[in-house]
Amino acid sequence: MDNLYFDKDVNLDSITNLKIFVIGYGNQGKAHAHNLRDSGLNVVVGLRDGSPSAKLAYEDGFDCMDISAGVMECDIISILIPDQCMAEVFKTEIIEYLSPGKILIFAHGYNIHFKEILPPPFVDVGMVAPSGPGHAVRKEFLDGNGVPTLFAVHQDFSGKTKQLILEYSKAIGGTRICCFQSTFKEETETDLYGEQISLTGIIPMIINESFKVLLEAGYSPTVSWFVSFYEVKNIADLISKIGINDFYKAVSETAEYGGLRQADKLIDDKFKNEMKSALDFIQTGKFHQNWKNESRTGYPKLKAMRKNLKDSPINEITNKMLKILEQNKSNES
Ligand SMILES: NC(=O)c1ccc[n+]([C@@H]2O[C@H](COP(=O)([O-])OP(=O)(O)OC[C@H]3O[C@@H](n4cnc5c(N)ncnc54)[C@H](OP(=O)(O)O)[C@@H]3O)[C@@H](O)[C@H]2O)c1
Q1: Ligand 1 centroid to residue 172 C-alpha, Å
Q2: Whose CA is nearest to atom 7 of ligand 1?
Q3: Alpha helices of 149-250 — where are they, by DSSP H?
Q4: How far apart are CA 248 and CA 90, in angstroms?
Q5: Catalytic annotation, pick one of 32, 34, 108, 113
Q6: How far apart (Å, rounded) are the C-alpha atoms in residues 276 and 267?
Q7: Contact 181 CB / ligand 1 (< 6 Å)
Q8: From CA 164, how far away is CA 101, in angstroms rounded?
Q9: Atom of ligand 1 nearest to the CA of 29
């Protein structure tokens, strides 16, 4: 496949003499900063005034700088703070300190794609988005592996953007396993869709609802929890390891037949149309506007949905069972 890149395809020639400014020392920021430094690169961490993360970053041996000062001083500016506050930080602490030849790196295309951030034409803009959380980016790197990483070029002022972001991807461990090329549009729209349909939409909430159905039918919370919640991890691991087709070969024929028959009924045309309208809602920018309004008005719907979920009966039994299982695991070792 021609848009996949591995360690053998990339060296670190261009990035080695550049100074990298990692803004944010959270989930992704901390992992990128450590991996880049372990790859022999020159890394400075950018934090806001009074940041609670400053102590940790210093203890971890990083030089820290104010955001605007670091933007002026460094060549590569990797913006790894929450997407919701990125546009404001960009407006107040980044844009006026940029100069020709700098490269901005994002780990998600949201703010660029929805034009919340409009970089000046004289900088390069790229994306390096690991397909996993920061702790996995760090752990895999330490284990000699990497997390598959999407990369994309939005603006190529220097003519070297693709090379530089591939080198950055290599330095955080991405090309050890697989780097794949995309665009800001594709990454943003598919990322939102993937979240809203499977990852944060259906999977957690089907666990919650399936548990409630068993509970309301009079089954014991413990037994209902094991089938609705606990077994999901083993199934998810198995699907990830061997694929959907072989997964069905690995379960009993009763499970295969019952599951496929029921899925046909549940995932009907109405459901498929809902998935298509979710994608349309994202592609037309309506989700972005909806989310912006939600944030401007103090997150009323999010707060109501959080409250609803907090009151769900699955929480109490989950806390109890996870504690019991964890205690017994440590007792064994
Ligand atoms: N989380 C993931 O698994 C994941 C995966 C792939 C891509 N991404 C992308 O990676 C980027 C970073 O996400 P993340 O999850 O790593 O973020 P995060 O952990 O929530 O970021 C926390 C860091 O951002 C800083 N920060 C928060 N608000 C700030 C503000 N107003 N001004 C300056 N700094 C601020 C925090 O500063 P303090 O230390 O001062 O509190 C902290 O250092 C996002 O674009 C996200 O979409 C995330």
Answers
A1: 17
A2: 107
A3: 161-171, 174-177, 184-194, 203-216, 221-225, 231-250
A4: 48
A5: 108
A6: 13
A7: no
A8: 12
A9: 16
User: What three-state secondary structure class fits 15?
Assistant: coil
Evaluate: CB of 24 within 6 angstroms of ligand 1.
Answer: yes
Residue-range domain boundaries for the chain:
4-182, 187-325
Structure tokens at 258: 């019952």
Ligand 1 pocket residue status of 70, Cβ below 6 Å: no
Q: Please indicate whether residue 288 is annotated as part of the active site.
A: no
Residue 28 Cβ contacting ligand 1 at under 6 Å: yes
Could you read off the pLDDT tens digit of each residue along the chain, which spans 333 residues?
Answer: 668 999 999 999 999 999 999 999 999 999 999 999 999 999 999 999 999 999 999 999 999 999 999 999 999 999 999 999 999 999 999 999 999 999 999 999 999 999 999 999 999 999 999 999 999 999 999 999 999 999 999 999 999 999 999 999 999 999 999 999 999 999 999 999 999 999 999 999 999 999 999 999 999 999 999 999 999 999 999 999 999 999 999 999 999 999 999 999 999 999 999 999 999 999 999 999 999 999 999 999 999 999 999 999 999 999 999 999 999 987 654
The model's pTM:
0.93
Q: Are strands 19-23 and 4-5 parallel, antiparallel or unpaired?
A: unpaired
Give the start-end residues of each E strand in the chain: 4-5, 19-23, 42-46, 63-65, 76-79, 103-106, 124-130, 149-155, 179-181
Q: How far is CA 7 from CA 12, 168, 299, in A?
A: 10, 12, 43
| Domain boundaries 4-182, corresponding CATH code | 3.40.50.720
Ligand 1 atom closest to the Cα of residue 67 is: 33
Kindly report the length of the chain: 333
- Label residue 100 exposed, middle or buried (CB < 10 Å: 0-12, 13-18, 19+): exposed
